[in-house]
Amino acid sequence: MSIIMKRVWPIAFAIAGCGTSPDDRPPTFEVVTLTVLAPSCGQVQCHSTTTRVQGYAFDTVEAARATFNAGNLSLSNDNPESVLYQSGPNRMPPDSPLPDEDLALIQAWIDGGKLGL
Amino acid sequence: MPLHRLTLFLVVIVVALATARTAAAYPQYQLARDVTCTGCHVSPDGGGLLNENGQTVAESTAWKDGDGSFMYGMSKPSWLALGGDVRGAAGFVYPGTPSAAAYPMQVEAAANATSHGFTLHVTGGFRSPQEGGSALHVLWSREHYAMWQSNPDEGKGVYVRAGRFTPTYGLRLAEHVVYTQKFGGRPLFDEAYAASVSYVDPRFEVHGTGFLHDPLAASVEKGDGGAGYAEVRLGSHAAIGAEGKYSRGDEQTKTFAGMTGKVYVESADLLFQAEAEVIRQHITIGAGFRATQLAGYLLATKPLSHGLLLDVGAGHYTEDTSVKGLYRDCLDVNLHWFVTPHLEGLLTTRVEVLDLGGSPSGGYALVQVHYRL
């Protein structure tokens, strides 16, 4: 029974997509970019190195670093040009907004000093 | 060629100076109409140019009669196949409140030159500038390859390809926003320089591809690796498949594995297709990180009268299986209207829910128009 509780139950939840633990993803620039920004914002038709809508590209760490360092996209919470504002109150991506957990991960990276930029 | 057809052809080519996305076909017809993709398409894994039977199917499914061949029967040498696609969409997306949106999607032309089983293929169009607007990247060829096939008149047998094309993987649906494609192993514009061997038969098909990412231009596929797909038909109305892909890039490696299934219920003229993938992501720079994602999609397709085709799909994507509540689900309803053998209208809608309502939700309702030359 204990084996079922410890091993089978978490696997079953994982397969169902529910997850079993709170968010312990490390808030590094690489994780923020490659697990959040690239699959959601960096799709080829949007903010990718191929298309560069509004001049932004988030599909690679290198491209995201260049985008942030260009200074056109703020990382401040209350700035309408902020990546957090765009993905939060302004609901980007428009058809598929970022979940609260991903916004919290980006916030944790900012609070941690934006390491990796 | 009559003047108005020549004018139309030239207008399409000129309009191609706008932007281009992708062309794709209708796996919704598999099992219901033809068993293999090669039943309707020149390519061994479907998409792009139609063969003679594909043009006949386009004629038989359209609301209005017409000649389904290139430019309504324009004369050309028998060894040359030509085609093209123009596609765009407009409507509303839903970022909290409805917001108008328009998307120029695709303006492309394609050509196949075939002799004694050898084929040279090119698909080209135009896309938005990249890398600061270099003209080199405005005009592009999404696909160009050389191919040999063992039975060129039968649509089965061995196919060997080398050049730039999409590694064969998964269901290969036309709608690139399907989760198993958007987040899975076959995203939009993932063509790479590749070599592949395929064996296609009414009973089964196997595809193996090795690929290298584009060394010249920014591309969706950023790694080098391989992909495989195998599908076995269970009788005439069902099929099951297995898929795998590995890609190693400068910043991460990704491993994809999954299954597909197809069942055609003849009595109801209803086709079900399903795909489920496990994606293992390994970030190899910085402190590194490993994550596991899940993507799944179930699509039911029902042909209606007057050239109408109804799709109802349900999707699931788990962004990280280790994090509680980090997933999304969607319900898609698409109504295709094949007005003529060349003109298709599509009403495509989606409602997306994050964490079953725990986070903001999104969606869209778009009308897409597709004209095939």
Give a quick summary of the entry:
The complex is a heterodimer of chains A (117) and B (373). Chain A has 117 residues and is mostly helical.
Order of helices and strands of chain B: HHEEEEEHEEEEEEEEEEE
Supply the CATH architecture of chain B.
Beta Barrel
Number of distinct beta strands of chain B:
16
CATH topology of chain B, what is it called? Porin
**Number of discrete domains of chain B:** 1
Determine the structural class of chain A based on helices, strands and strand pairing.
mainly alpha
| Mean pLDDT across every amino acid position of chain A | 78
Describe the protein.
The complex is a heterodimer of chains A (117) and B (373). Chain A has one domain. In chain A, 44% of the residues are buried. Chain A contains 5 helices and no strands. Helix content of chain A is 45%, strand content 0%. By secondary structure, chain B is mainly β. Chain B has a single domain, classed as Porin. Chain B has a 16-stranded antiparallel β-barrel. The longest helix of chain B has 13 residues. Chain B is globular and about 60 Å long. The two termini of chain B are 14 Å apart. The relative contact order of chain B is 0.14. The interface between A and B is large, with 44 and 59 residues.
